[in-house]
Predict the structure.
Amino acid sequence: MAKTSQATWGGRFTAGPAELMLRFSESVSFDRRLALFDIAGSKAHSAMLAHVGLITAAERDAIHGGLDAIAAEITAGKFAWDTKLEDVHMNIEHALTKRVAAAAKLHTARSRNDQVATDMRLWFKWACGVLGEKIAAAERALLGVAAANRTVLIPGYTHLQRAQPVFLSHHLLAWLEMLDRDRARLADVAAHANWCPLGAGAIAGTTLPIDRGYAAKLLGFTDAKAGRRSRRTRWTRSRTATSSSSSPMPAHSSACTFPASRRISSCGARRNFALPTCPTRSAPARR
C-alpha cells in the first residue's frame, strides 16, 4: 500500500492515518485564522537569521518573497488548504518549501513550540485590540443614549418585583461600567501576551548565536523575555482570553479573523513589520 503523505510526524509509518483520524486531528479548519501571524513570525525569524549571519541576505529575500506570495493568496481566498497537513503552520511551510529552496532553513534555531506560541501571542494582541475597540464603540453608544435621557425614570426591580424608581441614564451607565471592566480585562490579556517566545526553541533555547531581541522588536513585542514559562502557559492564556468577559462577547467572525487589508512588509534593514495594532490600555475617562 502506498504511503499517504504525512509531513508532520508520519516518517516511521508505512501507511497514512485513517480518514477518521485525519478529521479528528486536523486543526487547519479553524487555526487558519493565524495564517498571517504565522507568516509575520517566519519573516521576522528569517530576518533575524540573516542579521546574525546564519542565512544569507539572498536566502532571506527569497523566503520573504515566497511568504508574501502565500499571504496574497490567503488574503484573496485562493490558497489551497490541506487537512492532511493538519494545521496552518504545516500548510504554509509545505507551500513555501515547494516554492523556495531556502525555506528548509527556516527551522534553524526555531521549534514548532516557540513558533506556535509566537503566533498565538500575536493573535491575542490583535484580537484583544479589535474586541477592545468594539467594546469602546458600544460604551460610546450607551453614553450617548444616557446623555439624551437624563431625566427619564424607570422602575428598578428586585426579586422580580418593582422597587424604587431609577434614572434610565444611571441604569445604562451601569452596563457601561461592566463593559469597561471587560475592556480592561482584554487589555490585561494583551499585556500578558506582549512577550516574544521566539528563540526559546523546543524546551530551553539554542546554542546558535541568535538575536532574540531583534526578532521581538520586528514583531512589535516588548522584548524577548518570554521563554519556557510562556510556552507552557500559552493554553492558560488562551483560557484567560476566552473567559475574561463579565458579559457575553459577540461571536461574530469579524472579531476573530485577520483583516483582509493586512499586509506584511519585507525587511532588509532593521524595521518593524506591519502587524495589526492593539490599543494601549489607558484609564477609563471620568464620566
